[in-house]
Structure formats: structure tokens, C-alpha cells
Amino acid sequence: MIKFLITLSLLLVFQTQITQAQGGFDIWVMDTKGKGRKFNVLTETAKPLTNRPEYDNQPNFINEYQLVFSAADENGNHDIIVYNFTSEKFTNLSKTSDRSEFSPTLTDCGLYVSAVVVEPDGKQRLWLYPTNFGEPELLYDDIAPVGYYDWYDNKAAMFILGEPNKLSYARGKGDLLEIDNHIGRAVKRRPKTSQIGYLSMKSPKETDQGLALPIRTYDIESGKSDVLGFGLAGSLDFIWLDSNYLLMASGNNIYRKKSNHSEWEFLGKVESSTHQNISRMAYSPELKKLVVVMQRN
């Protein structure tokens, strides 16, 4: 019964996140200093990069001065937006009225921004958008519905929605390596390794603050799995600062953890009367900027 209640609670948390996904979210940016164990966030510099009642979410840096994210228009259609930190200008990479693009990120080859596209017939598949603003192309015509993903060796490790949700790596046409099932939405390659990091919905830990999910890695080359402790209670997102350190948030608080340590270290709190609950994050060591997504009150 306890195991059933834990699973039910996790499903309710996950469904809540999906329900909220189309609400009002903005992207904030703040300065950072140091690296690794000396990394810190200057939360007093935090300010909104976007400030609209619509959805601005899922940010990722694609080079040392540009950020991409998914943004909804007034009709609820989602496009890929590029923000240039040098010119401080926003540009549409996509502008489609018959489909929506989510989770944009740079491919390994650097020639495309990939995105999960909800197509006119409802299919949810991975597409490639050339960085030179050429015509987009479908990548995997036989894999759907894709939720979240990351890249290794020019192939995608994908959260594929189903019962259960699966994490699979596309080794080739019709050749899917199933890594895990019943996973959370965070899928992040560990920098400079062949490891895919993710949050597992299996065997969560009960804490005074709620349920904490295990952080796992799977090495594409060796096939070895590992557990890197637990995430923060109630949090479904994390990023890698580098190959040794992770970053997560709870509420408006930001935390760091070394991969082989169990404890999370508090780095700072983003003070805001208009926004709360940091979720997705992106970090640029070149710009020394941390970007976070916050929900509008």
C-alpha cells in the first residue's frame, strides 16, 4: 500500500507539472561567479528576461551569446525564439501557425536547433531547425510521442511517453536502446562523458519536504548504470554545471551538489513578489549567466 501511495503521489505531481506547463512562465537571468566547487549565483542581480502573461519556457544556450526557448503567442501557438545577449534582441527561429515547438536545444553537430514538435495531426516528434533559418526536417519519423530528450554522438536519448514512460536511445533506424522506464522529465547528458543523466520515478525517498527522486546515469558506451543520490524533494528538473556538479532549485532557492556527495548546498534565493517556483534552468560558463524559469503569481 505504501509503494502504491508513493507512486500515486508521484503521478499527481507529474500531472500537475503538465497541467501548469501552458500557464504563465517567464525567463529570468542572473550573474554567476566561479566554477565547480567555487561556483555561486549572484541572486541579487536576478531580473526578468521575458515578462508576458503567456508561456516562455524551456531555455537552452546554443553558443556563448545566444539562448533559445519555447514561447507561446496570444493564440497559444508555440514557436522557437532566439535571444542574443550581445544585441539584446529576440528573433523567431520558427513562426508556424499549424504546429507548436517545444524543448529547443542545439544538436551535437551545431548545425541545427532540435525541438519536440506537436504536428497538425497531434503527432509529437523530434524535428531539426537549421541555425541558418533553412527549412526544418523531421528526424525520427517512427518515434512518437517524444516528450524530452538530449544528445550523445549525434543521436537522441528520448523520454517517450507511454505506460510506462521510457527513456530510449536511438542507435539507428528501428534500433532503440531502452535505458529505463517510468522516468521523470529531466534528461541531461553529463558534459564530456557518454552518460545520460535523468530523474527516475522509481524508489523515491520520503522526506519531511516531500518525495525526492533518484538521480541516475546510464553510460551509452559501457552500458553501466549508476545512482548519484537524490534530487530535491518535489523538484523535477536539474542541470549539470560541469561533469562533476549539478544544480537544482526548490521554490525560489537554488542548490548545488557534487555528483558523488549526498547533500545539496544552498546557494541563494531569488527574491520576487511577482514570480515563484524555479523550474528549468540553463547555464553559460562563457557568459557567466544562469537562466531560470519562474511561474507568474
Describe the structure.
- The chain is mainly beta.
- Helix content is 6%, strand content 53%.
- The chain contains 1 helix and 27 strands.
- It has one helix spanning 2-20; strands at 25-33, 40-48, 56-61, 66-72, 78-84, 89-92, 100-106, 112-118, 124-130, 137-138, 146-152, 155-160, 166-172, 175-181, 183-189, 195-200, 205-207, 210-212, 214-219, 225-230, 239-240, 245-250, 253-258, 265-269, 275-276, 281-284, 289-296.
- Strands 1, 2, 25, 26 and 27 form a 5-stranded antiparallel sheet that branches. Strands 3-4-5-6 form a 4-stranded antiparallel sheet, with no helix packed on it.
- The chain is globular and about 45 Å long.
- The relative contact order is 0.15.
Task: Provide tags for this entry.
four-stranded antiparallel beta sheet, disordered N terminus, five-stranded antiparallel beta sheet, 297 residues, mainly beta
